[in-house]
Amino acid sequence: MKLALVYDRVNKWGGAERVLLALHDIWPEAPLFTAVYDKKRAAWADIFEVHPSFLQHIPLAKTHHELFPWLTPMAFESFDFSGYDVVLSVTSAEAKDVITKPGTVHICYCLTPTRYLWNARVEHESLGFNGAMLTLWSPILKKWDLVAAARPDYYLAISKRIAGRIEKYYHRTVEKVIYPPVDVEKFKINEKSKMKNEKYFLCVSRLVPYKRVDLVVKVFNKLGWKLKIAGTGSQEQELRRFANKNIEFLGGDLTDSELAAYYQECSAFVAGGEEDFGIVALEAQAAGKPVICPRNSGMAETVIEGKTGELFDDDLVGALHKFRKKRYDSDLCRKNAEEFSVIRFQKEMREEVLRLSNKL
C-alpha cells in the first residue's frame, strides 16, 4: 500500500507533530506534503521526505500563514496524488483540501474542524491585526472549508469532543475516535515524590486567552495556594502582572526531563480551558499525578472522575477543595495514562487505515 501524509504546516513543534512521528514509524516510506516547510523551526521533520507547496516561495508564508487565507486551499489542491493508494491528512485547517482521484482513498485524521473559522472568536482574539483579517475573510472561507470537508472519504477524530464538532459543522460521520499518542515513558512516577507532602499545583499550557489560564491564576490568587505555570504565549506578560507572589512562571523552554520533574513533584495538574484532547493531562497522569479540568474539555475523556482527578463545570474553587479532601492512587493514574500509549495509537491507526482502504 502506497501512502502519503498531508499536514497543514511544518513549521513548529507540538502534539500534532508527535502524531506525525508516530505515523512515520508505521509508514516510514510515506512522504509528507504540506503548505510550507521551515527546516529551522521544524528539525523533527528531517526524517521525512517533505513536499511543500508553491507557498514555500512566497515571503512571510512560512511564519504568517494567516496573511494568505485565500491561497492556502489552492496550495493543497495543487498536489497530485494519482500515484498513491491512500492519502492520510492530519489537520486542524486546510490539509483536507487535497483532491484525490477515485482510485485513491482519502482518510482525514481531524484534530478539529478548521480552528480559525469555527472557533473564530477564541482564536482570533489572540492574533491582533491578523485576527481581524481572518474575521473579515471568514464568511467566504467557511464556504470553501465546507466544500473541502466533503472531500475526504472517511473521517477519524482525536476525541469524542472533536467527533461532535465534525458532525455539527461538517455534517460528516466519524468512523472512529483514535486518541493521539502519549509518550508515557518520558513521564514516570518518582517513588520518592510519592512520600512527600507536595506543596504546589501545576499548569502546563500555551498562554493565550482561550486556554483560560487567567481563570487558574484568578482562583489561585484568591486561595493563596502555590501554583507553577509552564508555557508562553501572547497573554504571558498580562498574566505575570496579574499574578500574586504565590504563583511562579517557569517559561516555555523546559526540556522533557525538567517538565517531568515538575509533574512528579506537584500535587495535581490544573487546567482552566476547554481542550480538543489535551496530551499534558495524560503526561501528568503518567507521572502519577491527578488532573483537575473542565468537564466539557477533551481532557475529561482521559480522566476517571474521583479516581485519577476531578472535573468541574463552573466551580474550579470547589473542585480544588474537593481534591484536597481526598487521596489519589498514583499507580492508578499511571495505569490510566498507559491506555493512551504510542503503541496503542499505532495499532489502532494501522488497523483502521487498512480497514478503510479496503472498504471503498
CATH architecture of the largest domain: 3-Layer(aba) Sandwich
* Distance separating the two termini: 14 Å
Q: Supply the CATH class of the largest domain.
A: Alpha Beta
Write down the domain tally: 2
In short:
The chain has 13 helices and 13 strands. The protein is an alpha/beta fold. The strands form 3 sheets. It has a 7-stranded parallel sheet, with helices on both faces.
Explain how this protein is built.
With 360 residues, this protein is an alpha/beta fold. It folds into two domains: 3-181 and 342-357, Rossmann fold (3-Layer(aba) Sandwich); 184-338, Glycogen Phosphorylase B (Rossmann fold, 3-Layer(aba) Sandwich), CATH 3.40.50. The chain contains 13 helices and 13 strands. It has helices at residues 15-26, 72-77, 115-118, 120-124, 129-149, 160-170, 213-223, 236-242, 256-265, 279-286, 316-324, 330-338, 342-357, and strands at 3-7, 32-34, 50-52, 86-91, 105-110, 154-157, 174-177, 201-204, 227-230, 247-251, 269-270, 291-294, 309-312. The strands form three sheets. It has a seven-stranded parallel beta sheet, with helices on both faces. The chain is globular.
